[in-house]
Amino acid sequence: MPPKACHPNQAVAPPTSGRWRKRGCACRCHPYNVRMAANLTPEYQKNEARYKSATTDEERLDALQAMLQTIPKHKASEKMQAELKRKISQLRKDMASKPAAKGTVDHFHVPKSGAGQVVLAGPPNTGKSSIVAVTTNAPVKVGDYPYTTALPAPGMWPFEDVQIQLVDTPPMTVDNIPSGLLGTIRSADIIGIVVDASADCLEQADMMHSVLTERGVELKSVPVAELDVANPNARSAIVIANKLDLASEGDIEVLRELFDNKLEIIAISTASGQGLDVLRARLWQLLSVIRIYTKEPGKPADFDRPYILPLGSTVEELASAVHRDLPEIMTFARIWGDGWFEGQRVQRSDVLHDKNVVEIHQ
Ligand SMILES: Nc1nc2c(ncn2[C@@H]2O[C@H](COP(=O)(O)OP(=O)(O)OP(=O)(O)O)[C@@H](O)[C@H]2O)c(=O)[nH]1
Ligand SMILES: [Mg+2]
Question: Domains in the chain, please, with CATH?
Answer without folding.
Answer: 1-28 (no CATH), 42-97 (no CATH), 117-287 (3.40.50.300), 289-361 (3.10.20.30)
